[in-house]
Amino acid sequence: MALDPQAKFILDLMADSGFTFEGATPEELRERMGMTAMPSPIELASITDRTIPGPAGDIPVRIYRPSNDAGLPVTVFFHGGGWVIGDLESHDHCCRTIASKAECVVVAVDYRLAPEAKFPAAIDDAWAATEWVATHGDELNVDTSRLAVAGDSAGGNLAAVVANISRDHEHVEVIQQALLYPVTDGSCDRPSMTENAEGYMLTRNAMDWFHDHYTVTVEDLSDPRYSPILSDLAGAPPAIVVTAGFDPLRDQGNAYAAKLVEAGVDVDLVEYEGMFHGFFSMDAAIDVASEAQDQVAAALKDAFAR
Length: 306
What we know:
There is one protein chain. The chain is α/β, with parallel strands linked by helices and 306 residues long. The chain is built from ten helices and eight strands. It has a single domain, classed as Alpha/Beta hydrolase fold, catalytic domain (Rossmann fold, 3-Layer(aba) Sandwich), CATH 3.40.50.1820. Strands 1-2-4-3-5-6-7-8 form an eight-stranded mixed sheet, sandwiched between helices. Helix 9 links the parallel strand 7 and strand 8. Helix 3 crosses helix 10 and helix 4 packs across helix 6. The radius of gyration is 18 Å and the shape is globular.
């Protein structure tokens, strides 16, 4: 499969602009990512910023409401960025899109970032936020019996781990997980890591850099909260897993979907062979991004209808 022409155009623009994840400090990368965030054209009924209690202080969240109807379903969203960069602004369009197309309230979580807060700080915040949403349905005016989790890249990692943790907590029932090109295996030894090591925005070296900033010890890589593919996945919530053909993380996502299937979990694996890591929010320039958004929204709506 060849690289999609629209995807190639975007990658060429990035290359010409000198955009890279490499050779910078976390602070510099955060600034670069902030400069690339574009205003979203999607209008919603309300968008509210607030904080909720967390294990190490208040956690900022942003609540996207597509309508003022009572009892809407809710999706807790975790942004990508290698656990080091990204925030509520970088994924604002992604969250607006999910809220609008899936007709659900989206609660985006601004979890603590590494290296200031290393593993498992992001997981601790992600779980605390999900638990808070699940137990504050009346305050949020949402139906917590229709609760999903979603995330892209490192955020997909957090969503997968939160979905697994929820199995042991009766008061938090996750009915669907939407994992967009997720990190699932800290070993990073799968073929796509070599095949797509350079030239497609996210690189093998960048992933090593992210891992080094997030982890504390080598043993962290084999912790199921870091590498959810090492978890017992029996009883995990149904999932939609989106992967991209020219993504170093492609084989991790595909392998995780396969392991979910082996565990008896209902999984929809959607492979966009001509795409690269991060394409999901680029619907203004890449037509396939809109298709991916529609498929994720359809999976969420189907779950909410069940």
